[in-house]
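Hi R.,

Here's the chain you asked about this morning:
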Amino acid sequence: MATSREHNQPSFTVVSIATNLPGPTAAKRFCELGAEVIKVEPPSGDPMRLYNEPYYTVLAEGQQILTLDLKSPSGMTELHRLLSGADIFLTSHRTGALTRLGLAWDELHAQHPRLSQVAIVGHGDGEGNIAGHDLTYQAHAGTLTPPQLPTIPVADMAGSERAVSEGMAALWETQITGEGTFREVALADMAEEFGAPAYYGLSNPGSLLGGGLPHYGLYEAADGGWVAIALLEPHFLDKATQLLDISGSKEDYRTVIATKTAAEWERWAREHSLPIAAVREAG
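And here is the predicted structure, written out as tokens:
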């Protein structure tokens, strides 16, 4: 593992064959942390490029993009050449698919003993062949509110960050032992872990963070925009109710927020150091 940051050289190398969202998001973060990232795409390309090319471009920024057919001997030979100089191998395939390609961990470790693998899978505990996507992981975790689809693919985004932390831990362990390690990140587990606030009743409808408090919610402004009010701490709540001269009911907030635009309320909140913000529209 190279360590010469003084000359702007990468401190470690990541080879990724992970496509779609969690893997490329993790690869982007590795790149930001100083890695040389080599992304290997199949001849058909990364599906993310078809789904949303601007986002694909952002996720791939700063990386070397190669096209290899890993089902061909030449493609696999080139991949192993890359892995021979890499520190981390990032994957997001189902377990069986990697085995069929000859990329099971035992085989990889035998050929590249200092290489660590971070395997992003759908389900852990030996169930890495079960098909799934963020929506199905959240379905099992109980974080959906049908028929509304989730705005944020929580399992995918959480999984990408966990993959990075597992990768950095693997680098540290290799520095100590001289051997690479296998790290698995199950997206279904991430949905459950990051869905814990809903499971414990903190953020589901009508709860503390789910609309049960007048001073923690969304209110419509004069221009039709929306304002997020998050006055959880007593000192914020006391200050806001005094400045607004209200008792603090939901009707009070609805009435007073309707007197200014969302942008005006955000400026007002910043002047008074209060956690109130205009809601930015997605997309």
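One quick note: The chain has 13 helices and nine strands.

Cheers,
M.
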